[in-house]
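Here is one chain, start to finish.
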Amino acid sequence: MNKQLRTKRRRIALAVAPLLLLLSAFYGLSYGSVSISLKEIWLILTTDIQSAQQTIIMNLRLPRVLVGLLTGACLAAAGAILQGVMRNPLADPGIIGVSAGGGLAAVMMMVLLPQLSYLLPAAAFAGAFAASIIIYLISWDKGASPVKIVLAGVAINALLGAIMNGIMVVYSDRIQAVLPWLSGGLNGRSWHHLSFMAPYALIGLALTFLAIKPANVMLLGDDSAKLLGQKVELQRLLLILLSSLLAGAAVSVAGLIGFVGLVVPHAVRLLIGEDYRYLLPVSIAGGAALVVLADTIARSWFDPIELPVGILLACIGAPFFLLLLRKRSNWR
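Its structure:
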């Protein structure tokens, strides 16, 4: 891709990303079992009008859309960071074990300690954090190479998944509430759930912009980054921990939603290049919009059944990612 074309694509992406985010939010608020016009939504959001539509928007759809936006933004940011740190376009919180760590901690909390459910976001982050540390230590040998981290992450992901399944088998009488969460979904998400995840998600997303410079330097390779005076291992560890915070925040409320952190940053990278000054904000907006759009489709297009958004994203994400791989050589 020549420099002029890349610059043009970056400008278009930066202009389109906020618009796509806004359109997806209004689409999520408008459509469902009851359709509400944009004019009505605007009046509900800007005035104190009391109506059935106001109850639907303020109590049901608005918190769900906001949770979806934060979930998609966190997953896409975590994926973009991991792909840069690992220098591997297949790196993703769901693949290298970060999401599995948060998922295992959340399942243990819901099954074994349901009375402490208010600590679910903290438990999910702690699980993701612990998984990240374990992966990092296992892959350490006078440094932690990206290849070793990915391989260790795949193994830990399989192990944590097996433990999670074992817990559900042993406590089969308690897993009814856990099963929808494992599929990944936003059904029934309310202001209560938003207040759960918002502090973790917003802090994590704010910190991602501090990751732009080290992520860009790491693209040069460890040796070049060290020659520039960067503390590569410390920066890699901190960025992995930041991705753990983001993945833990998303997992704690939305469950195990896959492919967002893999497909969105990968697609954005093919469109506008590797520079994290553009890649990160566009990925965040794209991930947020994708989850809200997919969730709206999942709950409105299959009426009267509400499909978990994680299932729909997997069905869309897998073939789309395969298509990206086939087109990659033509996009460069």
